[in-house]
Amino acid sequence: MQNAFYAQSGGVTAVINATASGLLATARQYPSRIGKVYAGRNGILGGLHDDLIDTSLLSDQDVTALKYTPGGAFGSCRHQLKSFEQDAASYEKLISTFKKHDIGYFFYNGGGDSQDTAHKISVASRNMGYPVICIGIPKTIDNDLPFTDCCPGFGSVAKYVGVSIREAAYDVASMAASSTKVFILEVMGRHAGWIAAASGLASEKTNDAPHLILFPEIKFQEKRFLEKVEQTVNQLGYCAIVVSEGVKNMNGEFLSEAGGRDAFGHAQLGGVAPRLAEMLQNKLKLKVHNAVADYLQRSARHIASQVDLDQAFTLGQKAVEFALAGIDGVMLTIQRESNTPYRWTIGHVSLENVANQERFMPRDFISEDGFHITDACREYLLPLIQGEAYPPYENGLPKYLPLIQK
Amino acid sequence: MQNAFYAQSGGVTAVINATASGLLATARQYPSRIGKVYAGRNGILGGLHDDLIDTSLLSDQDVTALKYTPGGAFGSCRHQLKSFEQDAASYEKLISTFKKHDIGYFFYNGGGDSQDTAHKISVASRNMGYPVICIGIPKTIDNDLPFTDCCPGFGSVAKYVGVSIREAAYDVASMAASSTKVFILEVMGRHAGWIAAASGLASEKTNDAPHLILFPEIKFQEKRFLEKVEQTVNQLGYCAIVVSEGVKNMNGEFLSEAGGRDAFGHAQLGGVAPRLAEMLQNKLKLKVHNAVADYLQRSARHIASQVDLDQAFTLGQKAVEFALAGIDGVMLTIQRESNTPYRWTIGHVSLENVANQERFMPRDFISEDGFHITDACREYLLPLIQGEAYPPYENGLPKYLPLIQK
Question: Which residues are CB-neighbours of B221 under 8 A, at least 6 positions away?
Fold first, then answer.
């Protein structure tokens, strides 16, 4: 009987701890097969520095509370391992930690970069004569992993964005006769427009907000944008816009860069909404407000999607069950069985196939004019935001488990 | 038997329609005393242009749905009447509308500027020989009206801000070891720091976020701010900051102005968080993220405070009851009877005394170092965010009444 190592990776979500909850709760059901589950303090860094959190010290109540707690309870990180050839020392450190704590199972909970890391570790562990069972568990608000119907964390952001643009549009519509005419909400999505697309679900009837959605997949054309906004304001009296942080101009450059790059070398974005607001104010002489949701959108556990939560939790359960069944070197996937009602099962795909692929919005999910979503997109997205998974409250605020990694 | 005129004014809130709901539902209970209730399309502009919405056309179900719908259902506006001497024509238009529709009751639902307008109309209607009963109903997310314990709309923003900073702080804390170290949330509050203060409720234990709050009442000192952030990051590994849009420097100038002025001549603010983020990145070399909540905060009906909703609804009820009792020329107030449990009643104060006063945070509600709230402030604020008044959902999104003014 061996122990397990679980690590959270990359940007955290409203439901990544639900995956941890499912995984820990399930491992506890097999005391004769899995010993302790250790969590990496701050993700894989904990493995590299032999800094592990013994989750057996968490009460069952704590494990349940994880399901209601946003952020990454054990700490996450942005740290991509180089290839074994480039950085053998890191792999040696990690395997040394595995050996020291008798780790036989490695669960890595993250996005595309993390699945790549999981794959490298899987290969290295075999090559180094200390094979561990490696299972990647998908997680990313960007919803850009291949092979899986969707990515845990996305459904909750999608719901947050849909709720928020609907509410803000009520606000601006109320005031437009004498005040703000245009509202712009900036959402995350560096390369893929899934989050921006989800805002389109709020537009159920003709003329419902959002009226324009700007996707990273569609190059920004200022003239067409200004025409569309002007036309909407003339027709409805106001205009609500959702813009993805990753929108690029005709030269393929980000419309706005906040400067700086993250640990993966990605440009750190932000500030596209203020830039568009300025453009509209200058060119169309309209009063414009803008909001930048930033971390609020991916931590909004208070309005998490029940479907998203269920999938995140189930993936944690299945990770343990699959590992115990000897399934190795895979990323778990969500398989859509039917749309109405939405039915899904958990499958898996070889990590080798997943690494460093991004799934963009298909062109037929974006309307012909490039400014909205199609019915096909709506059909895909709608099941993912169903149900309100409210957390418990105390003193008027959500009662979350304190961060464990501190 | 005369008719009534109800108008929404100024920035809308998550619960101003709950006041409308209470008012309409109550008026319907007195069919022998109040005829129709007309709502001004886009607030007082509807009165000036004889553009009224006959609310008798709303079903009882619609009136109930108002309670769950953010924004201003009949349209609001930013339009302050000049004095009678400066603009007699507007008063004549308004009184002409009142006469034409046999209006005997005028309910004006707004903030400080609107109470001033209500007062002017009250005086003018008497001087012009067509006296109407005038009742101002408080509403402002800024919570800056005098004489009332709090202002409807504020409690829900307060809750939203408390929830949001707690959630975002979980996010940044999870990632701080290798990524973003500082998170800044910009909230509304042009002159008074009540909304920023409410974020302090999320800080229940030592070291809980937010770690710094920047109030308009406390002049911004860059050196002290940088020291405090650095100290917090050194101690905790991260720092969560809430900043009021109205923060001013030592010269009394807004730290950031988005440019432009609204119809009342107030500077239109926005963008203090990005400015502070830039400052921290340059001076402390820290990775910083920032969010600007803008309209999301005041339209967040999905996480409205139950106490706020109850007060907003009750004020609508009482406005009708007081008017029928012949009470005239007053703004309704919320009177705090006890803290634990929080008990309140509805009172009133002469409009004359209310007009154009702003209630700032008392100094003893702000900690000595100027960066947080005190226990006295906490005791005042805590009752206002109690209870989660969730709206109904359909297809994964809140089901709101369509805007009526369109």
Answer: B250
By residue count, chain B amounts to 406
As a whole number of angstroms, the distance between CA A70 and CA A403 comes to 10
Do the chains contact at B204 and A78, CB–CB below 8 Å?
no
Closest Cα partner for B45 from A179, A264, A150, A309? A179
Nearest to B12 among A175, A183, A300 (CB): A175
The pLDDT of residue B80 is: 86
Q: Do A287 and B301 touch (CB under 8 A)?
A: no
Note the pLDDT tens digit of each residue in B15-71. 999 999 999 999 999 999 999 999 999 999 999 999 999 999 999 999 999 999 999
CATH classification (class only), B2-140+301-357+392-396: alpha beta
The answer to whether A10 touches A112, Cβ cutoff 8 Å, is no
pLDDT digits (tens, 9 = 90+) for B121-132: 999 999 999 999
Within 8 A of B299 by CB-CB distance, chain A residues are 167-168, 170-171
- Point out the residue among A45, A178, A290 whose CB comes nearest to the CB of B77: A178
Which residues of chain B does CATH 3.40.50.460 include? 154-298
- Let me know the angle formed at the C-alpha of B25 by B19 and B30, rounded to the nearest 5 degrees: 125
Optimal mutation site among B16, B167, B207, B399, interface A, most CBs of chain A within 10 A: B167
In angstroms, the separation between the Cα of residue A29 and the nearest Cα of chain B is: 28
ipTM for the complex?
0.96
List every span in chain A annotated with CATH 3.40.50.450: 2-153+301-357+386-398
**Domain A156-298, CATH 3.40.50.460 — does that match?**
yes
Burial code (b: 16+ CB inside 10 Å, e: under 16) for A180-207 equals bbbbbbbbbbbebbbbbbbbbbbbeeee
Cβ distance A177 to B77 less than 8 Å, yes or no, reads yes
Q: Is the pLDDT of residue B383 over 50?
A: yes
CATH class of B154-298: alpha beta
With CA atoms as reference, the chain B residue closest to A290 would be B294
* Residues of chain A contacting B292 with CB distance shorter than 8 Å: 290-292
Instruction: Count Cβ–Cβ pairs < 8 Å, chain A vs chain B.
Output: 237
Residues of chain B with CATH 3.40.50.450: 2-140+301-357+392-396
pLDDT value at residue B271: 81
User: Residue written as tokens 């393929």?
Assistant: A252
- Report pLDDT digits (tens) over A210-267: 999 999 999 999 999 999 999 999 999 999 999 999 999 988 888 876 444 445 555 5
Which chain A residue has its CA at the smallest distance from B78's CA?
A: A178
B167 Cα to chain A: minimum distance (Å)? 5
Q: Measured between CB atoms, which of A8, A178, A299 is closest to B45?
A: A178
**A202/B175 Cβ within 8 A:** no
pLDDT at position B265: 55
CATH code reported for the domain at A2-153+301-357+386-398: 3.40.50.450
Q: Which of A116, A142, A308, A328 is catalytic?
A: A142
The pairs formed by A204-209 with CB atoms below 8 angstroms and a separation of 24 or more are: A204/B395, A207/A235, A207/A236, A208/A169, A209/A165, A209/A166, A209/A168, A209/A169, A209/A173, A209/A240
Instruction: Give the residue from B15, B171, B403 with the most A CB atoms within 10 Å of its CB, the best one to mutate.
Output: B171
Q: What ranges make up the beta strands (E) of A195-329?
A: 212-214, 239-244, 257-261, 267-269, 288-292
In which residue ranges of chain A is CATH 3.40.50.460 found?
Answer: 156-298
Task: Tell me the C-alpha distance between A188 and B152, whole Å.
Answer: 32
A168 closest CB neighbour out of B174, B287, B295: B295
> Which of these, A308, A167, A68, A15, lies nearest to B397 by C-alpha position?
A167
> Are B164 and A296 inside 8 Å of each other by CB?
yes
Q: Would the CB atoms of B170 and A299 count as touching at under 8 Å?
A: yes
